Amino acid sequence: MKRIVLNALGPLVGVLLAGGVFSLPAAAQTELKFGHVGAPGSLFDQSANEFAKRANEKLGGKAKVVVFGSSQLGTDEQMLQKLRLGTIDFALPSTVMSTVSDVFGLFEMPYLVKDREHMKRIADDVFWPSLAPAAEQQGYKIVGLWENGFRHVTTNTRPIAKPDDLKGIKLRVPGGKWRVRMFQSYGANPSPMAFSELFVALQTGVMDGQENPLTQIHSSKLQEVQKFLSMTGHVYTPAYVTVGARKWASLPADVRQVLEETARETQDFVYETAARMDEELQAKLRDEGMQVNEVDKDAFVKASEPIYRDFSGEVPAAKTMVEKAVELGKSS
């Protein structure tokens, strides 16, 4: 009886399918989750969204990049762990990468990167040959090199014009021992803290100050809880478009190619956007009530000598990388 009914229904189902009355469900589209800690309007936010737009146009229906900002998928440390587990697909870590491999401490060295043209040369001659492979040894693959930016100090205590002005200040820093040691050598009391916790820590006085690029300061509204902006420019931090190596290997080759090519080509957009924001945001922060001051950079450079000695002495190949990066800056 079942066979008779099925045979009778077969032609009817065929007619309904052909006529579009109903259809079988399509295969689910692969969603690629891209997490970052940036607030809406930040450089991270604009960069990730531009990448997703470009990649999704090229991927058609093969996959779709979906961006989750504002630490929705966790802190930088948590997202790095999720990359290894394969529960998210992309993250955009910055300073925290020095906890993955000590060689990333190169970008914790004060006043090493002069400008973005210098950074491009460092990327070609130092980063891709030396740092990217070190990440792969730890289970990560970096597919693009973007930007967090030149970092500046904000405080509620006093303007910072020279290293001595930092003495005793409780300063939030991102994860990574080299930033901690740098500010300790300046006399501050640095404490690593998740970016998502920073606003409240400043608002309540748990921290006196912090250091970040202007785009992170403004987009996270830190001007509402900080009085002074000191243009130290002490460190330039890249941002790394990072995937978990095992999950990455499981994607189709054509999808990987589109994603990697798009991550690389988005770099120009990132640099152009970052340069424009640097020009605009200092004036905006001043207009919104912050007191802005320049600093004695020569004094900061001199006070940074111990951190270079420590890095070169503790990390294999560090001295060679630093010397190469400095040499590449001579033509800037």
UniProtKB/TrEMBL annotation:
<keyword id="KW-0732">Signal</keyword>
<dbReference type="InterPro" id="IPR004682">
    <property type="entry name" value="TRAP_DctP"/>
</dbReference>
<protein>
    <submittedName>
        <fullName>TRAP transporter substrate-binding protein</fullName>
    </submittedName>
</protein>
<dbReference type="InterPro" id="IPR018389">
    <property type="entry name" value="DctP_fam"/>
</dbReference>
<dbReference type="Pfam" id="PF03480">
    <property type="entry name" value="DctP"/>
</dbReference>
<comment type="similarity">
    <text>Belongs to the bacterial solute-binding protein 7 family.</text>
</comment>
<dbReference type="InterPro" id="IPR038404">
    <property type="entry name" value="TRAP_DctP_sf"/>
</dbReference>
<keyword id="KW-0813">Transport</keyword>
